[in-house]
Each structure stands twice: as structure tokens, then as C-alpha cells.
Amino acid sequence: MSLLTVRNLVIDYPGTRALDGADLDLAQGETLGLVGESGSGKSTLGAAVGRLLPPSARRGEGEVLVAGEPVFDLPAKRLRHLRRRHLGFVFQDPIASLDPTKRVGAQLRLVLGRGGDPAFHLGRVRLADPRVARSYPHQLSGGMAQRVALALAMAGSPELLVADEPTAALDSQVREEVSDVVFALAAEAGTSILWLSHDLPAVARRCDRVAVMYGGRVVERGPAREVLGRPAHPYTAALARSSPAAAAPGVRLAPVPGPPAGARRPAPGCAFAPRCAFAVERCAHERPAPVRVREQDVLCHRAAEPAVRAAQEVGA
């Protein structure tokens, strides 16, 4: 049984469909990178895992199961138990996720309960200086605050850690150090990771599998080496070509053609069709069913065609 299962999840905000039938699976001990342009639905999907969506969000249909528990159908008490026992969250802005009125040590003691040792958990995230526990969040650097947030998230050894762009606001050296800590702690505890990111090379290095989102759907998923090295969906191939971190020096980047999907209504067909060089008439009005291409599951009418497959591999 999967630790996390998302099936046909539809989430609406006023005037916008954020998730338009998203599907996802994550196994125990697995690391899954969730990638896509801003507005693709990554953060909404990550928040939905713990039912942490804002009050304006409405679930239209679909379900989220964590360890077999239907997240959206649980009463409040059982939901709190599920979050404590199974889930940890690390967000992009660490300062905003910490309580500004409490010292770091006090916040850890609230999570750990009586007898917990904040110094031990801070040491696990490479913050052994005792002054950190006595500090308020605003007295910490961004990298230190993110490690504190990670210590809080991992204090209960959750089965699943949802990390939403946790290193995006950090400089490159600190970003690597924080990422090292995240994945090392997760490996030690046997914690699965759902890693939301724009950094495709980092995802390729660190994650077992990758899921690519566009227009509120997961349009391609499979092993990281295949999805990012030999993409099968036209959007994945275009996204890989446009990644600055993956470009060779002196090589001009090829942006994803056309404007990104913004505020949107439910797409009758493939949401990427207006930007896709391979789109045909049916793409505009017929939703693609998943097809298997090598080791990937792909939402594309033409992904299995030899000519399209060859073009994606050459262009990636």
C-alpha cells in the first residue's frame, strides 16, 4: 500500500481551478520530486496532503489518502493525530513558519513534550551552538531558521515530509547544506519525502522519482533519470530545456513557448495544448488518458508515437 495516494483531486479557489484531477502515489521510504512552473498546482497539492489549504479552497472531487486515512474526510481530532504521527512540513519561508514570540528551544519543547532534548534535535540539523536554542527566530539567518524548521518537522520522525521549495530563498552554498541535512535525516529515519521544487538538476540528483505538474494535473511521472533525462511529455521536454541550472555555459536557453497557464477554468482537453508544437485537433477537447512510455506514465495523446518520442529525446 502506498504511503500517499492522491486520486483525481480537484481543488478550486474563487475564479481559479488550482488542481484539475491530480493523481500521485508515494511509497514508504521513497523520495519524489514534484516540479513544474509557478502556478502549476505544486503548492496546492503539497498543502492538500495535510489538509492545510486556506479557507477559500474548495475540494470538488477526488481524495487524498495518507497511510490509508482519507485526509479530507477525517474529523478534526483524527486529523490532528494523523498530522502528528505521519506528517512533517517544511515551507519556503522559514521565519514565517516559526513562532516569533517564542525562543527556538521553547518551540522544540512544545513539539517534543516533557523529557525531550532540544539540543539533541538541533545538533541533528548541524546547529550545535547552544545560543541557537536561546534565540528568537528573527535573530537567525535564513539557513539557520530553515534548519530549525526542519528540526521541528523531523522531531517526531514523520513517515512523510512535505518540503515546499525549502531552499529557494537561500544562497547556493547554504541551499546545498540544508538539502544535505534534509535528505540525510530522512534516510536515517526512513522518512519519505515529497520535494516541491523548480531546481530540476537538484531533483534529478536527490530524488528517486519525479512527477511533473502542468495546469493542475500530473502530466508525467516516473524514475528521475527517465523523466528528466528522456522526457516523454512535450511539457517536460520544454521545461528541461528551459532550466538555467542545467544549461551549458554559453548556450542560449529555449523558453517554454507561449504564456504559462494562469488563472484557469477546467480544461476540456490537454491544458498544455495551446503551447504544444505537437498538438492536434483532439488535444483541445479530449482529455488524454495515461499512457505508458518506457517507465513513465504520461498524459499525452501522442507521447507513444515514435516521431514524437524521438523529438522529445533529441530536444531534452
TrEMBL record:
NCBIfam families the record matches: oligo_HPY (TIGR01727)
Pfam families xrefs: ABC_tran, oligo_HPY
Domain ABC transporter: start-end pairs: 4-240
Coiled coil: none
CDD domains for the chain: ABC_NikE_OppD_transporters
Lineage: Bacteria, Bacillati, Actinomycetota, Actinomycetes, Streptosporangiales
Name of the protein in question: ABC transporter ATP-binding protein
Family of the protein in this entry: Belongs to the ABC transporter superfamily.
Membrane topology classification: Peripheral membrane protein
Localization terms from the record: Cell membrane
Molecular functions (GO terms): ATP binding
Gene3D superfamilies in alphabetical order: P-loop containing nucleotide triphosphate hydrolases
Species assigned in the record: Actinomadura luzonensis
Top-rank lineage group of the source organism: Bacteria
Keywords, sorted A to Z: ATP-binding, Cell membrane, Membrane, Nucleotide-binding, Transport
